[in-house]
Amino acid sequence: MSGDLEKLFEQARTCRLCAGVLPHGCRPVLRGSPSARLLIVGQAPGARVHASGIPWNDPSGDRLRQWLAMDRAAFYDENRIAIVPMGLCYPGTAPKGGDYPPRPECAPLWHPPLRAALTGVRLTLLVGSYAQAHYLGNRRQRTMTDTVAAWRDHLPEFLPLPHPSWRNTAWLKKNPWFDAELVPALRRRVTAALDG
Question: What gap in Å lies between CA 87 and CA 104, rounded to an integer?
């Protein structure tokens, strides 16, 4: 790992900016190296990821790996794949279920320098509406569904995806074009980014 990126990751992993407001404390979860060709930007670690310190180490990660047609060894090869969520720490669970949104302080602080230091990235997967809002801004569509359906408009730099949470199972059934059209294209684009 180059010196700049190594220092940034160390600083990010020891960040305590939100210590006073995170119900389960700070445990930033991210990974990558200068040689990473693919960047995965999700929402924030969930409870299982917070406990293990391994990103996407939960059922959502299983579904994401299935979309990518990738086993765990390939997915966790940080020389090829960087993982930096919008919120680096678990934000806690909301009273009505589901996790709170990523802390708003996190992405503006960490994403610009980390993204600048991940110089080998050829494709960034924007997983869920928080990542899409941050990276696409006013280029995103009115809804997450419309943004994902317009995925071609954001290539070659970005590819928007729905969140692979079990909560989106109904969405996937309602939008069969995602599995039929986008998942095969996703696999081709990821392979090209990693191997090209």
Answer: 8
Region 185-194 average pLDDT: 98
Instruction: Give the containing element (helix H, strand E) for 130.
Output: helix 129-136
106-117 and 3-13 helices, crossing angle to 10°: 160
CA–CA dist 97, 81 (Å, integer): 30
Query: 96 and 112 in contact (C-beta within 8 Å)?
Result: no
Look at the pTM and tell me if it is higher than 0.90.
yes
Q: Is 78 exposed, middle or buried (0-12, 13-18, 19+ CB in 10 A)?
A: middle
Residue 2 has pLDDT above 80, yes or no: no
Measured CA to CA, the distance from residue 42 to residue 128 in angstroms comes to 6
* C-alpha span between 163 and 44 (Å, rounded): 11
Angle between helices 183-195 and 59-68 (to 10 degrees): 80
Backbone angles phi, psi at 123, to 5 degrees: -145, 135
Using alpha carbons, list the distances in angstroms from residue 55 to 24, 62, 166: 17, 11, 17
H, E, C per residue of 16-73 = CCCCCCCCCCCCCCCECCCCCCEEEECCCCCHHHHHHCCCCCCHHHHHHHHHHCCCHH
pLDDT surpasses 80 at 78: yes
